[in-house]
Amino acid sequence: MLEAIRRAISFLREKQILHKLGVLISVAVIGIACYMLYHKLRNIDAAAVFHAMTETEPRLIMLSALSVAAGYFTLTFYDWFAVRTIGRRDVPYRINALAAFTSYSIGHNVGASVFTGGAVRYRIYSAWDLSAVDVAKIVFLAGLTFWLGNLAVLGMGIAYHPEAASAINQVPPWMNRILAYIILAGLVGYVVWVWMKPRSVGRGPWSVVLPGGPLTLLQITIGIIDLGFCALAMYMLVPAEPDVGFVVVAVVFVSATLLGFASHSPGGLGVFDAAMLVGLEMMDQEKLLAGMLLFRVLYYLAPFFISVMLLTLRELIIGSRSKKLQAVAADAKPGVGHPLKEHGRSGA
Prior knowledge:
Blueprint lengths: L1 H13 L2 H25 L4 H10 L2 H28 L7 H18 L2 H13 L6 H29 L1 H8 L3 H24 L3 E2 L6 E2 L3 H25 L8 H18 L7 H9 L5 H48 L6 H9 L1
Antiparallel strand pairs: 1-2
Helix pairs in contact: 2-11, 2-12, 3-13, 4-5, 4-7, 4-10, 4-13, 5-6, 5-13, 6-7, 7-8, 7-9, 7-10, 7-11, 8-9, 8-11, 8-12, 9-10, 10-11, 10-13, 11-12
């Protein structure tokens, strides 16, 4: 059975069917989102949205900001876990934290996060003698943690409250609940599969040994905590009335996040927003949109600017150290870098 699946996947890769299918799905998601967003926003009063933003309690904005900070802190353990999984325990946590925070915050805003985030990670990890293959493995393992956490939150949330997902996908609640059970059963099956014996994916230098059962549970826990904080940040900013509860907001939020991720648009722009407006249509749309805009400022824009400043500062420090080392080397070997002295000696 597994061999048949491998052959099928190999055939699809050779014919580039998976790539074409991915592009088709992205275009379809963006197209549907644009259509829904147009119909949701055409009657929105911009002045009411701005007023709702200014009327949001500072306490709620602060609590949301703290939740975002906690989410990004948890997100740093994606890289910490991945780097140790590939056997590089010598890389300190502060480097993992810098790489994770900057790569995710820049990737979220620029789009194509696998490539943009990978480039940022390589710039940081290459200073610790990690190769491009090592960074690719880190990106894969961090992405695996992200998806395991997403599927766990989505499965548990939809199983508990399938109506929240039905508002987005227009599928009957009973069918969504069955889908949730399938997702959770798949997660359990995956944990059992990696628990039985060591598993790996890829070939040659690209081979990655998957985390075993206990470590996979740790992966899922990290992903759940990260998404929990992110959903809590969003929950703090949505309208208080009607009070739909945290679980409903969390299910809609995770569903919107996954749709935005599938679209590959920067920050899920348009797709995430359309899914949130559709999933929480029972709320005042101007107030909901105001909360979503504040969330984008806290979760996307603020971390992006902080990341750019951190990377700029890092490059300045590296450049300064490099100049100092060159100066020390020149002092240690008189004549190096001094053409006149070298010419005088050669003439002698």
